Structure prediction request, 295 residues.
Amino acid sequence: MPFTQHEQQQSNSAQNITPKTRFGGEAMKEPRILAIANQKGGVGKTTTAVNLSTALAAVGKKVLLIDLDPQGNATTGFGIRRSSLRVSTYDVLFGEADILDVAQETNIPRLSVAPSSVHLSGAEIELVTEERREFRLKEALDRPLPYDYIIFDCPPSLNLLTLNALVCTHSVVVPLQCEFFALEGLSHLTKTIERVRKAYNPELNIHGVLLTMFDKRNNLSGMVANDVREYFGDTVYKTVIPRNVRVSEAPSHGLPAIVYDMNCPGAKAYIHLAREILKREKTMMGGSETIGAAA
Ligand SMILES: Nc1ncnc2c1ncn2[C@@H]1O[C@H](COP(=O)(O)OP(=O)(O)O)[C@@H](O)[C@H]1O
Ligand SMILES: [Mg+2]
Prediction:
């Protein structure tokens, strides 16, 4: 069972393997950093972070998914038991552990996860009194690392955790649920991104807006999708993630939907999204990105 295997792997990595041997011989690079952000809860951030990371790894990229949500759904979505964590993203934020010590390899080749622990729920308040509190993640990640992509799963809030992610992110992926009020609160997010760009991170931009949980039997989904496309134009990805029960079942098996049922419509859509994102990357970065190139 993958669950048990993973737990075995976890205890191995905790006890026997140091970051040096784990990444021995691996080329260090400047990873591209994408944040999956929207302060609304339940819009598909975690599902997108988990499945996009898996799909990017599947097409040959070395990927680190960093779980920044105290709820830890991206962590448990990979079958990682939070109660047994020695170190987590909390320790990275407070300079108490190196990101390579926190990153755990998953059963998926090329994909590692930096898990979140329950301690993260206190981090926001604890950070307030810290010096350079917006730069904690930037300081932890601003160096060559053995990944092509780092993906942040952000909490459902524009708090200091999300701010830390935005300060070191290149580009933001914004999932929008195809429901009434999809656009509500979005100007708050775009203004925050603008503010972070001006104050801390001139590179920051919106990579794209992703329509999630699209239900083709529901007229409202189509109307919302049209509204969003009218408002955001080409920023909206062509790929739309359908509402699909297999996608919602997968986390309870500790697996990304793409591994749980690679032929379900949701999994196929996320693989499609990864390709679209890599294509957009090529345009954004002036042609230096390649689709499916092994790292
Ligand atoms: N495409 C989808 N089809 C069906 N259920 C989905 C889909 N995407 C997300 N869900 C479910 O919706 C809920 C919220 O998704 P989640 O990714 O956790 O959102 P967020 O991280 O923004 O809070 C979860 O129960 C998840 O399994
Ligand atoms: Mg989430």
Summary: The domain at 25-284 is CATH 3.40.50.300 (Rossmann fold). The first helix runs from residue 2 to 15.
